[in-house]
Design a protein that fits this description.
single chain, 554 residues, alpha/beta, Rossmann fold, 4 domains, five-stranded parallel beta sheet, three-stranded antiparallel beta sheet, globular, RNA-binding
RNA sequence: GCGCGAGUAGCUCAGUCGGAUAGAGCGCCGGUCUACGAAACCGGAGGUCGCAGGUUCGAAUCCUGCCUCGCGCGCCA
């Protein structure tokens, strides 16, 4: 059951086709620049003018006449006017506004869902940090983006799977193991020291203490000096504990992964070696200077890349060959990787390896998330990994709460650096847009509670003769929702949902101030009760798409 | 040097597969509670859309060049 904006768009497309003899590429319906231009406007006649080699005003006149004669929109369009260079301005009838509200109520929580034209399986991989340390605010932004994109794609109709890829292999894990072992030794007063380039953070001691509980003092004799077997144990178990902590934090952050895949088995089970052999056999890899190179330049990358070093160790890229080709095989659909800005130089390689593996490189999409800087009183908060002043995701959540963190981290387009004002985010009041939106939801609930308390139920009276400006604006905003979802999904842009919610909340607050609901005359009351319920539903739905709670009371 | 991203109001940013007089929040100035929540509403001031050309009925949006900022350019991950 298409929503009424779609009904109108289809009717306009039919009218254009009848007048021009060819269908329009798209029918854009926009709010008019000025209120006296009507309720809705479309520039479709002007965009058709070139293709049809006709005067835009002439087309517009024809479309206007055809639209008025279309039975599908009979009673919904109150007036059509051609203005300016060929804009078609529409004045909608009360029945149209009522129909929009009915659309939303009939669809319930599914209003706006399923708009993706060609749904497909999508695997969204994000966060994927080494289990050697806690998540910081940059990861929090990636988590918020990856999860919100997943929620939006799923709502729009795709079959989404969230995945975390654990780099639990290689030199960094060894260093982590050595660091944990050193801290473990220190618990027994041994002179063990964390390596210079190891992990110095306090959390390493926490991991060591947990391991002390698990393995007891059985290894105290084996960490000073350490033997390989012991280091391997500390690296493996330490990594597991760290990963558990990371995933638990992400659950608190309302991020749940459907699949957690590990790098180590790709090496141990020979998958990496097998993929490298295949690349060689296909002529996509070659030996030079004792190393094995991927001929990625043949697939558009800037230069060739090393897969296996002269010392025999495979690179991170080699594992990614195995991992991404495995993903491509499992999915048979689209892969989205969410990466930090410092990894953007990696995109060419990833696309190249997907193509070399026989898959369409366009099926891999890489979303780059720009940096986050935290502001305190307008001053940038200095963050340095070395100085230990890095703000972790846990710190952020403790400071401003999950709702504010999730909201602020996706409020801006992911390809612009984000300034997060902690003072504002912490503020539980007026200036804070999170509460502004949540408050609108609570107000809707408050009205509905009052109606229930007074035994007032929504009747089925016909729409009022005329609607107020606030009602028209709010209803039109609701009519936009399905389009907003589709757009946010197509562009992988949760910030569109957030921006919409702020607009919707503003329209609602304005309506609220000037319109009585429960105590209004029957015709108005029925429409407004439906409008409040529909608004409440869309706010709750939109907030859920960015994993922010919609409280009934605040 | 090359690549990617950004440059729009005092600040933070929307808007960018071309549409009418470029928007919001914050901040600033002023007004509104005996109504379903004032965590709200209403009004005002505030702009060479980085610069310069080009494309056309029409450019913040597309093209070219330049400037500034961030990030990246390893047989690291």
């Amino acid at each position: 059951m298409p929503d009424h904006l779609t009904v109108l768009r289809d009717a306009l497309a039919r009218a254009v086709t009848a007048v021009c003899g060819q269908p329009p590429a798209a029918v854009e319906i926009v709010p008019p620049a000025r209120p006296e231009h009507g309720d809705l406007a479309t520039p479709v006649a002007m965009s058709m003018a070139k293709a049809a080699k006709r005067n835009p005003r002439e087309i517009a006149d024809g479309v206007a006449a055809a639209l008025l004669a279309d039975p599908a929109t009979a009673g919904l369009v109150a007036g059509v006017e051609v203005a300016g260079p060929g804009f078609i301005n529409l004045r909608m009838a009360p029945a149209w506004f009522a129909a929009v509200v009915d659309d939303a109520l009939a669809a319930g929580p599914r209003y706006g869902a399923g708009g993706t034209a060609a749904p497909e399986p999508v695997l969204v991989e994000f966060v994927s940090v080494n289990p050697t340390g806690p998540l910081h605010v940059g990861h929090a932004r990636q988590a918020a983006l990856g999860d919100s994109v997943s929620r939006i794609l799923a709502f729009a109709g795709d079959d989404v799977s969230r995945e975390y890829y654990v780099n639990d292999y290689g030199r960094q894990m060894e260093l982590f193991g050595e660091s944990v072992a050193a801290r473990y030794g220190q618990l027994y007063g041994l002179p063990t020291e964390v390596p210079e380039d190891g992990y110095q953070g306090d959390y390493v001691s926490d991991v060591a203490r947990v391991m002390q509980v698990e393995v007891g003092d059985g290894h105290r004799e084996r960490v000073s000096p350490p033997d390989d077997e012991t280091l391997a144990l500390f690296a493996r178990r330490g990594g597991e504990l760290m990963l558990d902590a990371i995933l638990a934090e992400l659950e608190v952050f309302r991020v749940h992964f459907d699949v957690v895949s590990h790098e180590t088995p790709l090496h141990d089970d020979g998958v990496v070696a097998a993929r490298l052999d295949e690349l060689v056999a296909a002529g996509h890899a070659y030996e030079q200077d004792g190393a094995l190179w991927f001929r990625s330049s043949a697939f558009g990358d800037e230069k060739d890349r090393v897969l296996r070093r002269a010392n025999g160790a495979t690179t991170y890229l080699a594992a990614d060959v195995a991992y991404h080709l495995d993903k491509a095989r499992r999915m048979g659909g689209r892969m989205i990787d969410v990466l930090g800005a410092d990894h953007h130089g990696y995109i060419g390689r990833l696309k190249a390896l997907v193509e070399a593996g026989g898959f369409d490189p366009d099926h891999l999409e890489v979303l780059i998330v720009q940096l986050v800087s935290l502001l305190e009183q307008g001053e940038a908060r200095k963050m340095s990994k070395r100085a230990g002043t890095l703000v972790t995701m846990a710190d952020l959540v403790r400071d401003i709460g999950v709702d504010a963190a999730r909201f602020f981290l996706v409020e801006r387009s992911s390809d612009t650096t984000l300034d997060l004002d902690l003072g504002l985010a912490r503020e539980k009041s007026q200036e804070n847009p999170v509460y502004y939106v949540q408050y609108a939801h609570a107000r809707c609930c408050s009205i509905l509670r009052k109606a229930a308390d007074e035994g007032v139920e929504r009747g089925d009276s016909p729409p009022p003769e005329a609607l107020g400006d606030d009602e028209r604006a709010l209803i039109q905003r609701l009519a936009d929702w399905p389009g907003v979802v589709t757009e946010a999904a197509a562009r992988r842009a949760p910030h569109r949902v957030v921006a919409y919610l702020k607009d919707l909340a503003r329209d609602f607050h304005g309506f609220y101030h000037r319109s009585q609901v429960v105590d209004a005359a029957p015709a108005e009351r029925d429409l407004r009760l439906g409008l409040v319920e529909a608004t409440r539903g869309v706010i709750a739905c939109g907030l859920d798409l960015v994993a922010v709670e919609a409280p009934e009371r605040m």
